[in-house]
Design goal:
Strand content: over 45%
Radius of gyration: 18 Å
Strand order of the largest sheet: 3-6-7-9-10-11-12-13
Shape: elongated
Number of strands: 13
Number of helices: 1
Helix content: under 10%
Distance between the termini: 13 Å
Order of helices and strands: EEEEEEEEHEEEEE
């Protein structure tokens, strides 16, 4: 892969890239019963990144098939696909489109963008850790990244919950989103 030096990083040269879905995981973590965490992920998605001459002018888009949600428990996954949560029949996609890169420090970019869930769009802030660039054993260019953010699910209309006898609720309001991935030239 052709790279260039910017700040303290070896970045890919400017161009269009697509997510390598075989090497990308879009996951989430949410509190359950106020005492533990449930982890899940989405199996079907596509995305692209445009790396600009000035990396702070780069952009990204992501489209996730909402019905591909998986927590490893069929009943829970069915509930998450229902009207109580994602309403996948009405709202088949979850999307993200970056609006601007607002900063860089110590190997991490701060990216603002519009996240749309259930037809509700809110601005979110992502922390994007650049993982480096290289060439895989088959001669294909690749670069990696880790992304984290936290959202309040109720802001997106995901308000279903159940009170617990011991106090608190069944499902936490905050969802941590964790994306690990790789991108290749488009």
């Amino acid at each position: 892969m052709t790279t260039r030096t910017w700040e303290d990083l070896q970045l890919p040269t400017p161009g269009a890239f697509k997510l390598d879905v075989a090497h990308t995981r879009i996951g989430f973590v949410v509190k359950h019963m106020m005492v533990s965490k449930v982890r899940g992920h989405f199996d079907q998605f596509s995305g692209s990144v445009t790396v600009a001459d000035n990396p702070l002018d780069s952009s990204a888009e992501l489209a996730i098939k909402a019905e591909s949600i998986s927590t490893g428990v069929a009943d829970r996954d069915g509930h998450l696909r229902s009207e109580d949560f994602l309403a996948v029949e009405k709202f088949p996609e979850i999307t993200f489109r970056s609006t601007r890169v607002v900063g860089y420090s110590d190997g991490e970019f701060t990216v603002l963008g519009d996240l749309t869930v259930r037809d509700v769009t809110k601005q979110v802030e992502l922390t994007v850790e650049y993982g480096g660039a290289g060439t895989n054993p088959w001669g294909q260019s690749v670069w990696g990244f880790s992304i984290t953010t936290e959202i309040d699910r109720e802001e997106f209309g995901l308000t279903w919950n159940q009170a617990l006898e011991t106090g608190g609720v069944l499902v936490g309001k905050k969802i941590k989103i964790e994306i690990e991935g790789e991108a290749n030239p488009a």
